[in-house]
Amino acid sequence: MTAFQRFQHEKVQQIEAALDSLLPSTQLEPKQLHAAMRYSTLNGGKRIRAMLVYATGHLLEIQQQTLDSLASSIELIHAYSLIHDDLPAMDDDDLRRGKPSCHKAFDEATAILAGDGLLTLAFNALAKAKCSSEQKITCIQLLSQAAGSRGMVGGQAIDLANEGKSLSIAEIENMHLHKTGALICSCITLVASLKLTPDDAEYRHLKHYAECIGLAFQVQDDILDETSSTETLGKTQGKDKQADKSTYPSILGLKASKELTEDLYNEALLSLSHFDQRTEYLRDIAQFTISRIS
After folding, report:
1. Hey, what domains does the chain have and what are their CATH numbers?
2. Segment 113-140, tens digit of pLDDT
3. Model's pTM, two decimal places?
4. Helix, strand, coil tally for the chain in percent (to 5)
5. Burial of 119 (0-12, 13-18, 19+ CB in 10 A)
6. Please, what is the angle between helix 48-60 and helix 201-227, to 10°?
């Protein structure tokens, strides 16, 4: 394995163990709710968000126990968002990561409650993080903003409101900077806030890297929705086109969309060039983001 593959393997195992210890046992009541929470959180996934937390921690030399709490909180938010996104009232998808979506494996009411449970558990994980009270408050502020109406939830609202409408590239970018980019950006800013302030040049460079990666991730998602298969994606291919959504390929075309991912990748690397060392995993994640096939 390459150094990055070893890092990826190690960190996926690390976050899976951290999440497993946080999630309530299926032996505890309400058993079905806890089963749904575990089903939707521990059913695979690339764990890019967790890897970004660990890679930033590697750069800034943050202790692993603290990183486990931060990575877990973000992965729990992500898992909750996927449950709710798949509901019939939202994106109405029956597949997630190659398995039945939570509302299909259980039922819609349980899926809604499982998402609610994961969202609240995320902030419980942050409250128990091994850092100062002031640092915890900062992390809670950053994550709640990234996940709320000015971030991920707001982006989903914009997406739903614009189905069937023709959007400009600027409007699509704004939507995805909220819907996808905000939570990805929080993977970097939560960790950076433990050592840096928003006024520090290093903080600004890391945040810009995260913004580039967050947008590149979404552009690649749009490309894969056009070019990949349901089996490879683990979710229904072509959903964006079915829902008549404006995407990067529908506006720019596939060739220009792929060029945009390269431009964002190069801009992300430029942000990392301001650091002397220990950016190798962040660079690798940037490459992985634009080259992934699912």
Report:
1. 3-291 (1.10.600.10)
2. 999 999 999 999 999 999 999 999 999 9
3. 0.95
4. 70, 0, 25
5. middle
6. 160
